[in-house]
Amino acid sequence: MGKADDKLVVNLRESGIVARLAEHCWRLLNRQEGIAIRPLVALCIGSDRYTGDALGPLVGSYLEERGVCTVYGSLDHPVHAGNLVETVGMIAARHPHPVIVAVDACLGRPGEIGNIEAWNGGIEAGIAVGNRLPCVGEVSIVGVVNAGGHLGYLDLQNTPLAVVVKLSRVIGEALADVLGRMAARDAAAALCRLNGGTGGPTSDRE
Description:
Number of domains: 1
Structural class: alpha/beta
Helix content: 25-40%
CATH topology: Rossmann fold
CATH class: Alpha Beta
CATH architecture: 3-Layer(aba) Sandwich
CATH superfamily: HybD-like
Strand order of the largest sheet: 1-5-8-4-2-3
Number of helices: 5
Mean pLDDT: 87
Distance between the termini: 23 Å
């Protein structure tokens, strides 16, 4: 899950968490090798069949509406255990050497409900419910939607929708902010190169 100093943990009860999450993701993304020329892809994992599992699709739909990056996984077109492997293959075929931001719901301890965790490295989706799926993502974000036990999918099914919506809003706003800033900076850098490289920002993401 990445080095300990790469990981941020915030909770819905805290103030300013959108800005904190956005700045942390900004730093994580800018550490990716070749970030200035690699396509950014949001992979939002989950399904609306279980309340708790809808976190990823909610974030994906939010990002789609704002058009800040390419998105796989939304309420209309979810990416879940049944099509994750196929989707990862599709991303690899369509986007050369992408930087994937993976988003998923997870289960934790009772005191961790409402936590958002972000780190440098991949995510193993489905572990909480016993699925063995490939590790995906260069940067990962999870929201702790409920306490985990031996019930697996029932824990996700019995998750209050309010918690999931609040988590999705924070993650969506933070990602929209950072990905929008990156896209704007890259567009300015491209324009600068087109104009002969005089003035304006460089192509390196800082």
